[in-house]
Write a structure and sequence with these properties.
mainly alpha, 0% strand
Length: 168
Amino acid sequence: MSGSTDDSGNGSKSGSKDEELKAVQAALGAEHAAVYGYGVVGGRIGDKRRAEARTAYDAHRARRDELQRAVRDLGGEPQPADAAYALPFPVPDSAAAERLATELEDRVAGVYSDLVRASSGTRRRSAAAALREAAVRAARWRGGSVAFPGLAERSTASGTSAPATPKA
């Protein structure tokens, strides 16, 4: 089957490109949500972890910008950020801000897991690196790791199944 583009695991050229574009757009949407969410985290996090939150915010902004370029490279129009995103729970204090940061990283890892599956080459390596970075940040915020970062059905200890990105 290695000679057939349709059965090689890459799909047809247009089909795989469409799937890849869809996965890149989903990752872009998750990064938009993460940038928004870290704005909330930054407003509530204690001084002790403020620099860590700023570093994560900057990392998500950089990934967002990279994904916007990737969408254009694939012939698409990058989806814009929503004006606001619904938070998964109230964030009245530093402890809740840490939980939100963990949740954001878990959700971002999930969409990068999908992008790893949908892409190849340089984009796949970049998505795998982004998944790893999100998993490391989540572990730092959580104070421990999960068995399968990016796989919600395996890593969600609380029993909740959250969507990959917050909805507006």
